[in-house]
Amino acid sequence: MHHQHFKKLDSTQVFLKENLEELLTHNRIILISASEQTSGIGRKGNTWETLPNSLAMSFTLTPNKTPTLTPIEIGLLATQFIMHKFGVQLLLKWPNDLLTLEGKKCGGILSQYIDSNCVIVGLGINLGKIETPPLNQYPLGIGSVLSSNSYQKIDLEKLNQELYHYVLNNRYETFEQVYADFNKTCIHLNKKVQILEEEINFIGKFKGIGPNGEALVEVNQNL
Description:
This protein is an alpha+beta fold.
């Protein structure tokens, strides 16, 4: 594994993508992490605000056999790692948010497909005490895994490595496994949801995911 950890970086994902060709000369398994990230990237061009005591990391990964399942797979593996490491249960909000049991957002995932052998995954998780108020408004509220703890640089660097190793060593083999674990972890299964997709606002009951990771929503008794 080739791991570069920075004290401060604009975006781990941008750095990895812009330097991918050179980084691949060292190793195909690449992890870029930072103690402080100033311009993190979220889904649909949104900003991911990295707070103190947070994991900010991007890494290379072989896509899931069904590539569009990759972010859901990573979300499941991240929740499992947090439970294994800290004994704290997190939940998933389709397609790429990590939530506390109270429903507050504490993490997010962004996957960029490069080719059939490589996807760049960006992962941010609020780990410890939130010491500063967020600059942006969060409709779900903002949470953390362990609100009373802080982590020093060396701990964050090590935890990034541990999480990446966990992901590499616990990949899902089948959609059925992803489906079963997602249903156990999804915060809004069989609940009313609102999904904006291609300027169309779908409002209905969330019934789970399809074989490509797509949301299945029951609208007016139609799926």
